[in-house]
Each structure stands twice: as C-alpha cells, then as structure tokens.
Amino acid sequence: ESFLQMRIGLNLVALAANFFTSEAAAAHHPFVGEHADASAVHHPNGTISQRMTPKPAAFNKHAEFISRNGEVFKHEEEGPISRLSHAIFGKYETDFEKRVHDYQERRRNEQKQQYQSAYSGSSKRLGAGANFATILTNTDGFMWTGEIYMGKLSKMDVVYDTGSDWLTVEGADCGSCEGNTYDIGPSVDSGIAKPVKTEQSIRAYGSAELKGREYTDTVCILFSACVRDFEFFYIEEQRGIREPIDGILGMSRNKPFYLAPEEGNKTGPLYVEHLAKEGVISANKFSFYFTQPGSLSWVDLGEPIQGNIKTGAKIETVQLLKEDFFWGAFCEGVAIGDTSDANSYAWAELEGYSTWQPNNSFYSIIDTGSTAIMISAVYFESLVLAIFEKVPEAQWQFLEQEGVILTECNHEYPSVFFLFDGYWIEAAPKDYVFAVDDTQTQCIFFILPAGMAMNVIGMPLFVDYYTIHDPETGTVGYVPHTTSNKSDIVPGYASKTQFLEVSALENSIDGTALFISWSICLILMYLIFDYWNAFLRESWQKSLSETAFLAVTAVFFAAVIIIFVFLVQPLIYSALKSSLEEQ
C-alpha cells in the first residue's frame, strides 16, 4: 500500500512538472494569440514557422526495401533511394541481395515454427489473436504534413520529406487520387502556370508510384510568402498514396549522391532553396520542432529561432557528408540503454561495400520521410538481440511476412543511440515501440530490416529535438526543444571490441529432426525406385527407344530428387523440429 501511495505521489509530481514545463514552453510558442489558428507565421526576422500535423502514413516510400519473405530490391523504382541503390548495386540481383536472401532463407524454417507456436494450442501466446493486417498498416506509422497553396489559393497537405527533392501534388484530373486535388486549368488559362514538358513521366516513392507532368506555378506558404514560376510535378495518376496526404515537398540537398558521384547532380527544384533565393525567408535553412502525435509540431523555414531551444540546453552541430543529395553520414556506432563503452557497438566489417568504412562506420541517412528506423538486414538481428539483452523477460518474435518485431508492451525498453560525427543522438523507446492492439498488450518495433547496404534513420531520431538543417554545409544542429525531456546530445565513441555482427543469428539445426527427416526421405525415395523398377521400367523400355528411355528415366529421378531435397525434407524437418521442441 505504501508503495502504491508513493507511485501515486510520483505520478502527481510528474504531471505537475509536465504542466509547468508546457506552460513555460508556451511563452515561445509561435501559434498563440492572433496566430492561434494560423497554419504559418512569418516572423520579423524573416523566418516562417509552418505548423505540422501528424497523419497516418498514406504511403511508405521505403516499402520496397523492407525485408519480407526474403525479398529485397523487388521493384525497379525511380525514387531517390532507388536511384542510388540502382546506381551502386544495379537493378538486378547483387551479391548483397543474395547475401540477405540466403541469410533470410536460413531463418525461414525458424520463422514458420514461430508462426505455428503463435497460433497453436489453447493457451494465449505472443501473437495469438493479433490483427496482422493492423500490424502491417501500423508499420507505416505517422507522417508530418504542412500546408502549401498551389496557384496561391488551393490548399494542399504535403509531407515535408528530407529524403527527396521534387514538390509533387495531386491533380484534379487524377481519378485515383484521394482528398484534396489541385485543378491547374484556371492557372494555365490565366498564364500563372505553364507546362514544362508535354510528355508524361513516372516517379516512385517506395510503395507509391506517380504519373504526371512537370509544370511551373506560383506556390505559397502564406498568401504573402510565395515563389513564382516554381517547377513541380503534377500528378495525373497514382498508386499507393492515400488520403489525407496530397503530395510531397522535397527537402533534400542540392548535391550529387555521395556514393555515386559519377551520376552527377540530378537534384530537382527545392522549394526551401527557392524561398531563400526569392528573399521570402531569411536563409536557406530549416529547423524541425517535432513532438509526439497529439502535441504541436512545426518547422521553421529560415534562420532558427532561439526561443524554441530548451532553457540551458546547448546546440551541438553534427557534420554530415559535405557532398551528398541525402542528409547522410557514416554512423560510427550504436549504443543500447546508455552510451557507455560496455553498451556500445561498432559496425562489423561488410566486405566489398563502400557503405562500410575501415573505422567500422556504416553509411546512414536521416530522413523525415521515413516513419521508422530502417537497419540494413545484415545488421538488423544483431541490433534486435542487443536490445532484448536489456529486456530478457520480454517475449518477442519476428513476423516475417510483415517484416516487424512483435513484442509485449509491458516492459521498459531501452533508448537506442546513434553516433554521428562523435555525438550520440537518442531514439527513445516511446518513439520506436508502438501498441498494435486496443488492450496495449502487443507492440511492434519501428526498427525494421532493410534489404540494402545502408541505414535509413527516420522520425524516432527527430522527436523531442530542435534540429537545425543547413543544406549548404551539410550540418544538422541537435538540441532538446522547449517541451523535450531529452538531454543534450553528448560526445563519445563506439566500442572498439563490440560489434553489430553481420547475420548474427544463425538458424539452429536440430540434429535429431535432421536425421529422422532424411531417413524418412531415403526410405520414400527407395520405395519410389522399387515401384519404378517393378511397374514402370519394363513398359518404358518397350515403348521408348534406348536414348529416349535413358532421357525420361534421368528426368524422372532428377525430379524426384529435387522434390525431396527442396520440398519434402524441409517440410518433414520443420514438422519434426516443432514437435520435438513442444515435447
């Protein structure tokens, strides 16, 4: 009872602290007073604060890279991530793809056994009764959108995406588009909008494929803050984008791909860059103020606003690659729980890939257009195992078809830190562990396996920080914002003796099940041979020439061997292993 009273008292103290923290933060809130209902506020220093709204993700631009059923690089897409992957690895199966595929094939039987155990028996187990359609949808999470005005008047909700370049908006002629669409006809008739190309082209963002044409038009953040003759992509047909998102506003850097400089700089028009060139905002910079869904978030276009920084907090400037289309860098390590040497890991050698460097760092992109932390499939399980070492009592499994970790919600999961430019940046558990059922008992990780030789680190690394982006220098300033419970990012280094290993978890082989399964297969194959010898051989010899008889016999037994090796034995082995483990 005394323990319960103490917990209640601590909760009341925490609620009071949160209340007063929120009240103090409101003093620097840009959307107060006359701006309380505004979508954007233009400050005297030239910076524009754009309100951002969390909405269920209408598409997953990295969906093609989520490792499900051993499939990687399964689409030929034209999005920036895809263009880079194709430039480095080619459009067809690569050694890396084979490595990931072979690794996941080794795990396939274990995953099938986990599925069976999740659904078998009368007792309630992890995964039993789970709505897997909901899980698959929830892996897309939330995206943050802001308003823009096409042709000065038509409001569109677009994703602010640091991992792409072009502004794309859904057009009125798009029969497959949902929600708000932009009718460009009146703007074309008045001469405000003009077609750039007459032929239709295709652009792809993971699960979304867009067809349309390029136009120039007047694009505004506020009625008084516009860029005239801005080139954008007008969507006339699309697959994969659902309401409530009407388009994508790219915020990448105007640089060539670091990993494929021979491709040259093919960056499309960048809206923030043009706002600065037109003198609408004070500088070609932007800063995100991200909180939890349900609380106010925004982006500052132009110079950062010091009032958005937590009192006493210090901005630490993280230098990313100076020449890269993405906000990319070589991540030097990962830490679980805290940043001590004992809890940190460097990236084990990935031989033959320029995305890994001899100092045990690994190429990674930070991206507001990704709702999750996407870890290269060859390091994924090693990272997950390191996390669950901190929570040994948790029951969990990897759902292969959905490509997610399913676990129990009632545990305290550790923060995961990523080391960039010698600074540890925190992804808190509340930002990567999410419930998928109404009872809040089953959760998924927003840490996903990616079938590519790089990481894409999304929203969990932005929440509760004020992140100051400078596209020209490739720096991002990290500092806790006024409502954040996070501490300053701290300098440090990764362990020189601990590594996230490549393909860390091998499929365990049950020797008994293996012996019995092959014994059964050999007996069955002998019976087939005996049947052939007794009933088929003589009739084949009579009806076929000697050459044809030998050819048909060879094909028949080759087919028998293939069926037993690749189908019958694995099925028998899996069933026996599952049965033996249950015993």
From TrEMBL:
<keyword id="KW-0812">Transmembrane</keyword>
<dbReference type="GO" id="GO:0006508">
    <property type="term" value="P:proteolysis"/>
</dbReference>
<keyword id="KW-0732">Signal</keyword>
<feature type="compositionally biased region" description="Basic and acidic residues">
    <location>
        <begin position="102"/>
        <end position="111"/>
    </location>
</feature>
<dbReference type="InterPro" id="IPR001461">
    <property type="entry name" value="Aspartic_peptidase_A1"/>
</dbReference>
<keyword id="KW-0378">Hydrolase</keyword>
<dbReference type="InterPro" id="IPR033121">
    <property type="entry name" value="PEPTIDASE_A1"/>
</dbReference>
<keyword id="KW-1133">Transmembrane helix</keyword>
<feature type="region of interest" description="Disordered">
    <location>
        <begin position="102"/>
        <end position="123"/>
    </location>
</feature>
<comment type="similarity">
    <text>Belongs to the peptidase A1 family.</text>
</comment>
<dbReference type="InterPro" id="IPR021109">
    <property type="entry name" value="Peptidase_aspartic_dom_sf"/>
</dbReference>
<feature type="signal peptide">
    <location>
        <begin position="1"/>
        <end position="26"/>
    </location>
</feature>
<keyword id="KW-0472">Membrane</keyword>
<dbReference type="GO" id="GO:0004190">
    <property type="term" value="F:aspartic-type endopeptidase activity"/>
</dbReference>
<feature type="compositionally biased region" description="Polar residues">
    <location>
        <begin position="112"/>
        <end position="123"/>
    </location>
</feature>
<keyword id="KW-0064">Aspartyl protease</keyword>
<feature type="transmembrane region" description="Helical">
    <location>
        <begin position="548"/>
        <end position="573"/>
    </location>
</feature>
<dbReference type="Pfam" id="PF00026">
    <property type="entry name" value="Asp"/>
</dbReference>
<keyword id="KW-0645">Protease</keyword>
<dbReference type="InterPro" id="IPR034164">
    <property type="entry name" value="Pepsin-like_dom"/>
</dbReference>
<protein>
    <recommendedName>
        <fullName>Peptidase A1 domain-containing protein</fullName>
    </recommendedName>
</protein>
<feature type="domain" description="Peptidase A1">
    <location>
        <begin position="144"/>
        <end position="479"/>
    </location>
</feature>
<feature type="transmembrane region" description="Helical">
    <location>
        <begin position="515"/>
        <end position="536"/>
    </location>
</feature>
